[in-house]
Amino acid sequence: MKKLFLIASFMVLGGAAAQAQDAFHFGAKGGVNFANLAGDDAADQESRTSFYAGLVAELPVSEMFSIQPEVIYSAQGSTIAAIDEDNTFDVDDNIEYQLDYIQVPLLAKIYLADGLSIQAGPSFNFLVSEEIDFQPTSSSGDIDIEDGANDFEFGTAAGLEYQFDNGLFIQGRYTRGFTKVYDNVSAYNYAIQAGVGFVF
């Protein structure tokens, strides 16, 4: 089911690219994530700074309203202060709990003024990687986790965007998971995103 949903999402965006015209826009975007976990069992977590990147399409319904589907790779999770004063395990100052997702948001886009819009809607998120990284400042220290976090997360995304006449846009967004990272643990993903993109 997960693979079929992802294939369908890419087909929608691929079809958008093939049919791009004045009334239909297709592009790419990327930026920085400030991600963390919220919930009663995530009180000691700190934010993980990482990235997101992906594809975006815009389907205008009226002059002031559009539907905006996206497919985004989003590196999320949290950071934990390392407790290893003797450096026994050769760790950095912090340890990253890395939860990376393919996110498929389906957003309503409302234009407040020329180029300025707000966006909000549900997001269907699929876990693609779960790791503990004891050395986030180097290429080593990764420990893969199998059968850990839930494979699927239902969430939301909301934000503000300004698009220039040449197609370049800047964007800020908040994302939040409604379903738990683990079934029996009170911990939910959230992230603040800031980035840029371009639509054709």
Automatic annotation (TrEMBL):
Domain named Outer membrane protein beta-barrel: residues: 19-182
Record protein name field: Outer membrane protein beta-barrel domain-containing protein
Organism: Leeuwenhoekiella blandensis (strain CECT 7118 / CCUG 51940 / KCTC 22103 / MED217) (Flavobacterium sp. (strain MED217))
SUPFAM superfamilies for the chain: Porins
Signal sequence, start to end: 1-20
Pfam annotation, one family: OMP_b-brl_2
Spans traversing the lipid bilayer: none
UniProt KW keywords: Signal
